[in-house]
Input
Amino acid sequence: MRLRHVKYAKDLIQAHPEFIITQPKQYRGRWQKRFNNTNPIEIEIGCGKGKFIYESALNHPEKNFIGIEKFDSVIVRALEKVIDHPLPNLLLVRMDATEIHDVFMPGEIDGLYLNFSDPWPKKRHAKRRLTSPRFLERYHLILKENSYIQMKTDNYPLFEYSMMMFNHHLQYDIQSCFIDLYRCDVSENIQTEFEKKFVSEGHSIFYLKIIYKGVAHEKVL
Ligand code: SAM
Output
């Protein structure tokens, strides 16, 4: 994805600490307090311009949502949506997800979304994929027992790689696996920006739903 530099992004982000957090480690273990309720918390890593996380928060006032994105020039578009129409159950966090275990406590997260994550096709970049063993270990450190990870992508090699990684990891079980989401009967599908574009171009959307079992279980081989 080519990144367009947005000149005013940094200033706008700094001006709205009520909507977007740039020093998130201070809230570790205290996110529900930050939301001022005890509702479950779901996060999207790589939320881009925020369409998915914004509409998720709008549709589910009974949950809290956090959109995580590493680039100012991208997340500023999500921030603009929130400034126009604030939602009490939505926060944005500008950070690199490699630090996620320093931002959330064990069991603090009830759901995790990975939508159209960068595929990093070169083998030497594999550890940057958001479903590499490095990241699966970090998710294991923040997810609640029996919580879930939902992944959507148009990229078959990333889909196949992710299935293998989840399958190899003892703490995760693949609950659903679709090779064409739009031919399946799912109860709710909120489109992301990338998804809207890919669907309009006729691409298949691959989908995985993973259950995080927690530490006490062992996979039956
Ligand atoms: N989820 C959005 C969608 O489906 O429209 C955006 C998809 S875009 C291909 C992937 C996004 O993930 C980019 O905005 C990128 O900056 C972000 N991203 C990739 N690696 C990340 C990381 N380690 N931490 C935070 N954001 C990341």
In short: The mean pLDDT is 95. Residues 72-84 form the longest helix (13 residues).
